[in-house]
Structures are given as structure tokens and as C-alpha cells.
Design brief:
Radius of gyration: 18 Å
CATH class: Alpha Beta
Number of domains: 1
CATH architecture: Alpha-Beta Barrel
Shape: globular
Number of strands: 9
CATH superfamily: Metal-dependent hydrolases
Bound molecules: zinc ion
Order of helices and strands: EHHEHEEHEHEHEHEHHEHH
Length: 312
């Protein structure tokens, strides 16, 4: 079955390989795995941990843009409207906007012009716009952050709340005039980590007509090592469905097999190690008792509807 994966840190990978003088990075590392896994759309994230400058942000976004542009035989550079059914839809996203310290409108407009269509204001850190899960729990969205969201809403850039702390989460839901996405977060009731969503947050996202992308990073699937697999991830889907979210479920695997350092291959669920293994999750959904239409909704239909509605 075809799958839309809302989140992979491919932008970060592209820049780090480019800095080692490598070229053709999407072709060399990514496109075959995506095809093999039946991925027909992917959010390619430019990921910023909190210390990066505007210069680095510009380099990363431009490098990813150029790489997508070089592969238009296999990739459709998706910026809105209908998704392509013959090529992999590549959408540029930004994770963390620590590089914005003033005049957010200018930078948001520049990102939009480059093709970025989903953005989160912070990663786990706290910055001039918003507060991530490792920041001060009493600090939420700032005035600059409110301006950022308002410009994103006007342009048609979707707000991603996956790394925000709870205060920022509620602030963003109040401020945003458009539905939001958690591109890669699971249910906290099944795995108690701060990046997963409480039932109250899940219900709020359902009411918001937003999306929740299920993530295959092992700690977000389960704290129990034997349960860090696609079967347990399907239980997160079941839990969110039981809260009324069958039309809000999506996928944001967050594969990290290509990253070095603290992240990397050992971060993933046992049978979802890289994009080529994505169909294991579809099989797990079947085993968990989801019917065909429900699985299509989770795999791509909900995302397709959301993107085609909100990115015209
Ligand atoms: Zn992330």
C-alpha cells in the first residue's frame, strides 16, 4: 500500500553529506529505500537543534531544494495542490526555527518561496518563538511566535506541533486559524515520553481537524524493549482511533538510519529500521484489526485530504 511519511530528517542529512563534498545524495541514499517501502510522499525535514545560525538554515534549505530539483524524474516537488501518483511527492519541511530572532515574517516568506510547506517553531529547545519539550514548562509561545504563526497561516504553511511543550501546544491551538499537524508523535498513555501526546492533546487535535503522524522511533513506541516494533505502534493507532481519531491518523516514521551521532540506526523500532521496511507497519495494522479503508486513511488518505485542502 502507498504511504505518505510526514517526517524524515533528509534535509539535515543532505547538508551534512554535501559538507563532505558529496553530490547526488538523494539518489545515493534515499530514493531506492523510499520506493522499496512504497513511500509515495515524504516530508523532507531541514532539522535544527537550537544552535544553528540563519546562514546554516539557508544553506540547508537551498541544498535540499537543489537536490530535489536534480531528481525530478523520480520526485515530484510537492508544494500544494494534487499529489502526483507516478513519482514520490517530496515536500520540504522545517523542524525548529531557532534561526529566527527578529522579523519572523521575512524568514517565513523566504522559506515559503523555497518550497517549505510544514514548519515547527521549536525543536526540544526553547527559542525566540516558542518552547520545546525540554524548555521551561511555564513558558509557551512568544509574541514573535504568534506573528510567525499568523504569517504561516496567511501563506499556507502548516504548523507542526510535534516538539512543543504542553504550554506552547495549547497556545498554538488558540492562535492558529488553521488546523495543525503533529508530524511525528505517538500516544503518551502507551509510551510515557514527553514527546508523545496526552489523551487530552489527542482529543484537541481531533477537534482541531489536525493530523497525528505515528512515529517509529523506538522509545516513542514503547519503554519496554521487547515491544519496540510495528505491532506495538499499531496499538498507538488503535488507541487514537478509539478516541475518535480515525480521520486524524497519519504516519511520520522519522527514520534515522542515515544519521550519525546520537541518532542513527539504533533509534528505530526493530522491524521499522529504514524506509524500505515501511510495509511492515501496514501488515501490523491488518493484524491489529483495522479494515482496508481505515488503513488507507492512516497510510495516505488523511494526509492527502489535509494537504490538498490546506495547500492550494
Ligand atoms: Zn523530531
Amino acid at each position: 500500500m502507498k504511504i505518505f511519511d510526514l517526517h524524515a530528517d533528509i534535509g539535515m542529512h543532505v547538508l551534512s553529506q554535501k559538507n563532505k563534498n558529496e553530490t547526488n545524495i538523494l539518489k545515493r541514499y534515499h530514493i531506492d529505500k523510499l520506493s522499496k517501502g512504497g513511500i509515495f510522499g515524504v516530508g523532507m525535514a531541514c532539522f535544527f537543534e537550537g544552535h544553528e545560525t540563519k546562514e546554516t538554515a539557508i544553506q540547508m534549505v537551498e541544498s535540499l531544494r537543489d537536490e530535489i530539483n536534480q531528481n525530478l524524474d523520480t520526485l515530484n516537488w510537492y508544494k500544494g495542490g494534487e499529489l502526483d501518483s507516478t513519482r514520490i511527492n517530496a515536500m520540504m519541511t522545517v523542524e525548529g526555527m531557532c534561526f529566527i530572532n527578529d522579523y519572523p515574517e521575512e524568514m517565513i516568506e523566504w522559506l515559503y518561496e523555497q518550497g517549505v510547506r510544514i514548519g515547527s517553531l521549536s525543536w526540544n529547545d526553547e527559542n525566540a518563538l516558542s518552547t520545546g519539550v525540554r524548555g521551561n514548562p511555564l513558558r509557551g509561545l512568544t509574541e514573535l511566535g504568534k506573528r510567525t504563526i499568523s504569517r504561516m497561516n496567511e501563506l499556507g504553511m502548516i504548523v507542526d506541533i510535534s516538539h512543543t511543550n504542553e504550554k506552547s501546544f495549547w497556545d498554538i491551538l488558540e492562535v492558529s486559524s488553521k488546523p495543525v499537524i503533529a508530524t511525528h508523535s505517538n500516544a503518551r498513555l502507551l509510551s510515557n515520553v514527553d514527546r508523545n501526546l496526552t489523551d487530552q492533546q489527542i482529543k484537541a487535535l481531533i477537534q482541531n481537524k489536525g493530523l497525528i503522524g505515528l512515529v517509529a522511533a523506538k522509545k516513542f513506541v514503547s519503554s519496554d524493549e521487547v515491544k519496540q516494533n510495528s505491532k506495538e505502534l499499531a496499538k498507538h493507532a488503535k488507541h487514537i482511533k478509539n478516541l475518535g481519531g480515525i480521520d486524524n491518523l497519519a504516519i511520520g516514521f522519522d527514520y534515522m538510519d542515515f544519521l550519525e551521532g546520537d541518532f542513527g540506526r539504533f533509534s528505530m523500532a526493530s522491524d521499522l529500521q529504514d524506509a524500505s521496511e515501511s510495509q511492515n507497519f501496514i501488515n501490523a495494522l491488518i493484524e491489529e484489526g483495522f479494515d482496508q479503508l481505515e488503513i488507507e486513511k492512516i497510510a495516505y488518505l488523511n494526509v492527502q485530504r489535509f494537504l490538498e485542502d490546506h495547500l492550494k
